[in-house]
Amino acid sequence: MTPVTTTPGFVRYRPDLEQPFPDEQELVRQIVGAMERANRQVAAKHRHGLRDAHAKSHGVLAGELRIEPDLPAHLAQGLFAGPRSYPVIVRFSTSPGDLRSDRVPAPRGMAIKVIGVDGPRALDDGATTQDFLLVNHPTLPFGTVGEYAELQELLERQPRESDLWQQSTRLGARIAVRVSARLGLRPPRALEALAAPNHHILGETFHSMAALRYGDHVAKISAAPRSEDVRALTGRPVGRRAGDSALRDLVAGFFAHHSAEYDLRAQLCVDVGRMPIEDASKRWPEELSPHQRVAVLHLPAQDPYSDARRRYADDVLSFSPWHALEAHRPLGSIMRIRREAYARSSDFRHTVNGVREREPSSIDELPA
Ligand code: HEM
């Protein structure tokens, strides 16, 4: 096998970095089928088609992605090749495929759609968008398609569980994680995910969790609070007396008077052994390769949750890691399964709601 690194040590992208599982297609079929069954139940409950994951939005923003000037050659790749600015739409969400109370802690999502991007596409979709889908945790507890299939039964039960049941499970998980820490034990990964605290969504750091092509190289992407006003929100608990829509209220309250900036960062792969591409549950060590700023995401003060915006972002738009330039092709088994999962979820809700899916070609398509 030819070496996969180039000087000064960044792994060079090539297609055979991906190693599909022998029975991957069958696992994908099972997982996507189970997700579709859950999605049908939720649509029947609400008489409206929702996303199969990250159904609840908390803010939909217009902004700008400013690529850093003078990036070194290994970072000046793909979308980040030159110092220009792109319009973006950002949708903040929480992970369940149902409309849960914001009193129940849940992983937070930040989906960024960059508009007006030219270049060869990862899929032949005729679009000019580049999406980055990020969650506020660096790794996925179930990082391969095989492990994900095992999780599926648990996920299938989710829509039927009450908010109260979910709140108690998470409280139990937090206690178990604390007890494990006192005993010097490492808690199971699934328990850690359930035990996540209920913090202000805007102060979080968001991660792609899985790898993607980064032009000549391979990277994970993250977005971290940059401006003082959002950094001040990191770790701030959502109040105990908060209502069911606490996160939307916090986001709307913040952007009524403040702008926000996040650093968009790339962590380049320098060692495919210690920074695996096929297993998204493995954290890439920052001592081997730090997250480096490649752009600044600027979100000005605005009304982030008008009815027209919510309808547009929730019902018309779709975000997917496969809305991508070939230079940012999603990589690894979790990314491959997402190709099928996102298309099916999006088709389902657009069909049920009688809404045509449309990739924006201009920021003017986002209603005020
Ligand atoms: C690397 C790990 C992952 C990350 C960072 C991630 C992140 C996200 C985010 C941020 C959204 C919301 C997008 C929006 O605002 O519209 C989303 C939606 C979604 N995710 Fe994931 N996700 C991951 C893994 C998965 C996996 C493994 C599956 C399924 C097997 C999946 C299925 C979905 C589906 C079906 C949607 C809704 C698609 C739609 O109807 O438009 N995700 N994800």
Automatic annotation (TrEMBL):
Listed InterPro entries = Catalase_sf
What GO annotations for molecular function exist for this entry?
Answer: heme binding
Q: Which domain of life is it from?
A: Bacteria
Protein's name in the database: Catalase
User: In which organism is this protein found?
Assistant: Geodermatophilus africanus
